[in-house]
Design a protein that fits this description.
heterodimer; A: mainly alpha; Rna Polymerase Sigma Factor, Chain: A; 12 helices; B: 3 domains; six-stranded antiparallel beta sheet; about 45% helix
Chain lengths: ~190, ~240
């Protein structure tokens, strides 16, 4: 897992290595783990749902399920993919129960724009718009790779795809983003 | 490997190229340039995906023991409120279990965790942030600059423990330091901490505190003194 290793593993490993999640100590260790991982879980849920409130609900439900099953988690290092799987399934369950209205991409971007307005990063705002517009089949593996640091093999296992299919989706996701953002020369780059 | 194969590989997984692909890159300037473009694209994708992740209100300390109880209750109870409380425990109120270990340490950990989730902010750079943005972000929290705190290279109004807080990166001669202005986090005295290989300090400031995180105690101490002197609370 690439990006996540850069972001949080020292804390994860030092605090939780070999820590069972049973008993009082296990509760505390698991609680700390949840607090630490929650931002990534929320961002993953957000990019699945493209809705902040839905993402909050998904993460809450997922953490409740995880809390109940925490004693079944033996390996600390597998906690993050385990929790992400629960988030993913919870998101799927929510979509089974509810049918959300289609929201225009510009509305999605503007909902997240206050933070961007301060930073004045037009490029990031445009990219966010383009990612919002990606189909789920492309957006999900891209989020797993770039944001969460999953390898293509891990993404393949999580999504039930071949590694080749994941690579194709990742390639096409970036290709679409470059096209949507009007990156000069991208067509020649891809074809040459 | 030919150029088309290289670009397919680089466009799918630019950070994990095979030895064969890397050899092709080294011998093909056009493909080397293509890889750089993909990596720049990925840096922007990463920034775009980093939406603020904290939007729940911070948990009042007096509720935390009750929510810890709710966690227990939820295990055998399908009642919706308990379920909600317990799931909040999973996300935010699970911090209730942490508070037993000392809130000050948790604050330091939260500060470092927040910083670690915006790694791009910590780049060493000579490019200053827009001065107007710095003023705007600080003013939202009732703060203005009465003196120079150094070259600010990054400024963002970030959700932190249920409040929007100014998050700045100041470039010093010893590298960048992160500054969080925490109006709602009181500390009684300055306290240094070490988390995830970083040095940091939490210091009283105005109605709340400031957190300064850097690479060494000396760097942090010097930066904290300068930042603390530069900030003026207007309300």
């Amino acid at each position: 897992m690439r990006a996540s290793k850069e972001i949080s593993p020292p804390l994860t490993r030092s605090l939780y290595m070999n820590a069972p999640f049973a008993g009082k100590d296990g509760e505390t260790a698991f609680a700390r783990l949840c607090v630490e991982l929650r931002p990534d879980l929320f961002r993953f849920a957000f990019w699945l749902a493209r809705d902040r409130q839905v993402a909050e609900d998904v993460v809450q439900e997922a953490l409740l399920r995880a809390w109940r099953s925490r004693e079944s988690l033996g390996e600390t290092d597998s906690a993050k993919p385990w929790l992400l799987t629960i988030v993913r399934r919870e998101h799927a369950r929510l979509y089974e129960r509810k049918r959300f209205e289609t929201v225009p991409v510009d509305d999605l971007v503007s909902n997240e724009s206050p933070e961007l307005a301060v930073a004045e990063e037009r490029e990031v705002m445009d990219m966010r718009r383009a990612i919002f517009a990606l189909e789920t089949d492309y957006r999900e593996p891209l989020v797993m790779q770039v944001l969460l640091g999953f390898s293509t093999g891990e993404i393949a296992r999580e999504l039930g795809l071949t590694q080749g299919a994941v690579l194709t989706r990742l390639f096409r996701a970036r290709q679409r983003l470059r096209r949507d953002l009007g990156v000069a020369g991208s067509a020649e780059d891809d074809e040459s | 490997m030919n150029c088309l194969e290289f670009r397919r590989a680089a466009g799918a997984d630019p950070e994990h190229l095979t030895a064969e692909a890397l050899a092709h890159r080294d011998g093909c300037p056009q493909c080397a340039e293509f890889l750089k473009k993909v990596q720049r694209l990925d840096a922007t994708i990463f920034k775009a995906l980093q939406i603020p992740a904290e939007s729940r209100p911070a948990l009042p300390p007096d509720l935390q023991p009750r929510l810890a109880d709710a966690v227990q209750a939820s295990v055998g109870n399908r009642n919706r409120w308990y379920a909600l409380a317990a799931s909040i425990a999973g996300g935010v109120a699970v911090g209730a279990l942490l508070w037993a270990g000392g809130s000050r340490d948790v604050l330091a950990r939260d500060v470092v965790a927040h910083m670690a989730h915006e790694p791009e902010a910590m780049a060493v750079t000579s490019v200053p942030a827009d001065a107007g943005s710095v003023r705007t972000v600080l003013a939202k929290d009732g703060v203005r600059l009465r003196s120079d705190m150094g070259r600010v290279s990054y400024v963002m109004s970030c959700p932190f423990r249920g409040h929007e807080v100014p998050h700045l990166v100041v470039q010093t001669s010893a590298g960048p330091v992160t500054v969080l202005v925490l109006r709602n986090e009181k500390v009684s005295r300055a306290k240094t901490f070490h988390e995830q290989g970083y040095s940091g300090t939490l210091e009283p400031s105005g109605p709340g505190s400031i957190a300064v995180i850097g690479g060494s105690d000396e760097q942090v101490k010097e930066a904290a003194a300068r930042v603390g002197a530069a900030l003026e609370w207007t309300r």
